[in-house]
Design brief:
The structure holds 2 protein chains of 2 kinds. Chain A is mainly α. Chain A has 3 helices and no strands. In chain A, helix 1 crosses helix 2 and helix 1 packs across helix 3. Chain A is globular and about 30 Å long. In chain B, strands 8, 11, 14, 16, 17, 18 and 19 form a 7-stranded mixed beta sheet that branches. A 5-stranded mixed beta sheet of chain B has the order 6-1-3-4-15. About 21% of the residues of chain B have low confidence. The chains are: A mainly alpha, B alpha+beta. The interface between A and B is medium-sized, with 21 and 23 residues.
């Protein structure tokens, strides 16, 4: 999976958790909590969706790696390759 | 039309989920009603069979108007003098205001509601006084906005007249004492079509159920703000609040949570919020007077804990639906209930019991909030527990200053039913329970 595919998948899961986020205007460096307003329940739902899609464990200690779309795409890419 | 909030005056029937002849068990979802809180699923309060659907999808009806007639099990099909009789309220579990009580029948010679065996449930807790002569007022929504306020008329007639923009005083009633019945209104409309045409905006034909839903169905932000304003104004007007704050060392709970979640896949993980709710619910038996409802100038502590949870809506506003019977739920069940209720609050449908039966509310700011929140009690409840954001703080622990995760718990409580010492015992009990997370 290339970064563009991962990004598309990530944004699909993100917008299903937070339907008001517009993928068109989403900045990849926006922070999930601070900028996009995800609360702990939203974030957990996002992690659950990514877990289901990619089959990755995504432990809580890795949550900071998902803080922005850009970070998440790098993290998921690395985890899928490793 | 059940009352789904202290300030609710009317609701729009969006959809029937049952049809005549359907057998119903208590708690079945029978209809969807649109309110300021979005689309709400209406549960039936008693077992029976749908005899007749009175309201039509798209109709906006005042609180107290009949939606349907329900036959109790074993009851024969009767030749009811309906549809004028306002019996068979679908789920009239109600707010304390008399306006929400659809019991009264303005036509005294018609069979009283209960003798028809229809779905009016027995009043649950101290349903205060018997309905007064204000029945007509009750059915009209108690807001003085209907011209028909003083006229003697059945709720169904009032509803239909209001919908068509008719003044009831202009209609000749054929009911007892000249009361206007639904048939009279229909006849009047038929005889004078011009009147009906002059106010076509509420015709049932434009059905909101057909509107495409996006995000939270049927949610109007301005209406929600109005609902919040009404409930909070009432709280500040009627409830003598007192406030307490207590800092709780959350490190033990945090460590336990981290360890527990490390062994779980994401969909099985717990949030700190679940621990906070569980601890609060478990602390209530220690100070039971904080759990209950202050209705009709009389406080009734509740046995079950219907734990309201303030859920912020993305884009603003909030709703505080309740996790019903939270006292019977373990940590995992509380977490599952939270997930379900948050999802339905934001994008789906809540049930009327969830938004009308709360006995206490918890508001938690989550990780990105401020230190503490001092809540406004959600009437008719008598307490609101607030949790600020958990933070790493320097604290004295075992004789040394170390960095530990702490949280500030607050209590806003009603001085009519408790006082500071009891409230303090409650917060202390929450603290104690959170020190032993493995036993939660």
């Amino acid at each position: 999976m290339n970064p563009a595919d991962i990004r598309a998948a990530f944004i699909e899961d993100l917008t299903s958790v937070a339907p008001d986020i517009d993928p068109e205007t989403l900045d990849d460096d926006e922070h999930m909590q601070d900028d996009l307003g995800l609360d702990s329940m939203d974030f957990l739902n996002l992690v659950s969706a990514l877990h289901k899609r990619f089959g990755l464990p995504i432990p809580e200690s890795d949550y900071p790696e998902l803080a922005t779309t850009a970070k998440a795409v790098r993290y998921l890419g690395k985890a899928l390759a490793g | 039309m059940p009352s789904l909030g202290a300030d609710m005056e009317e609701g729009t029937l969006t959809e029937w989920l049952v049809k005549p002849g359907d057998k119903l068990a208590r708690g079945d979802i029978v209809a969807v009603v649109e309110t300021q809180k979005g689309a709400i699923e209406i549960e039936i309060f008693e077992a029976g069979e749908v005899a007749e659907l009175i309201a039509e999808p798209g109709q906006t009806l005042p609180v107290g108007a009949s939606l349907a007639r329900i036959r109790k099990p074993g009851e024969e099909e009767e030749d009811e003098p309906q549809p004028a009789a306002p019996e068979a309220e679908v789920e009239p579990e109600a707010e304390p205001e008399p306006k929400a009580e659809p019991v009264a029948t303005p036509e005294p010679t018609e069979p009283p509601v209960r003798s028809t065996g229809s779905a009016r449930p027995p009043p649950r807790r101290a349903l205060s006084r018997p309905p007064r002569a204000g029945a007509a007022r009750a059915a009209a929504g108690d807001n003085g906005s209907l011209e028909s306020q003083g006229a003697l008329a059945s709720p169904a007639a009032k509803a239909r007249a209001a919908e068509a923009g008719l003044d009831l005083a202009a209609i000749t009633g054929s009911g007892p004492g000249g009361a206007v019945l639904l048939g009279d209104v229909e006849k009047h409309l038929k005889d004078a079509p011009s009147v009906a045409e002059s106010a076509p905006k509420d015709e049932p034909a434009d059905n909101p159920a057909r509107k495409p839903a996006k995000g939270k169905p049927g949610l109007d932000m301005a209406e929600m703000r109005r609902a919040i304003a009404a409930a909070m104004s009432r709280a500040k007007r009627e409830i003598p609040h007192y406030y307490l704050a207590h800092r709780i060392d959350l490190q033990a709970a945090q460590d336990w949570l981290g360890k527990t979640n490390a062994e779980r896949s994401p969909d099985q993980r717990l949030l700190m919020g679940a621990l906070l709710i569980r601890a609060t619910v478990r602390a209530l038996p220690r100070v039971p007077e904080l759990n209950g409802r202050f209705e009709s100038e009389e406080y009734a502590p509740a046995e079950p804990v219907h734990c309201g949870m303030a859920v912020a809506m993305r884009g603003g506003g909030l709703i505080a639906p309740a996790i019903l019977d939270a006292q019977e739920k373990g940590l995992d069940e509380i977490m599952a209930a939270m997930r379900d209720i948050v999802a339905r609050t934001r994008t789906g449908r809540l049930r009327n019991s969830e938004i009308t039966q709360g006995t206490i509310t918890i508001s938690s700011l989550g990780e990105n909030g401020v230190d503490a929140l001092f809540g406004v009690i959600y009437p008719p409840q008598v307490a609101l527990v607030g949790f600020g954001a958990p933070r790493l703080e320097p604290v004295a622990h075992n004789g040394a200053v170390t960095a530990r995760t702490c949280i500030t718990a607050t209590l806003a409580a009603d001085h009519r039913v408790s006082d500071g010492r009891r409230g303090a015992a409650f917060l202390a009990e929450i603290d104690r329970l959170l020190q032993e997370p493995e036993n939660l």
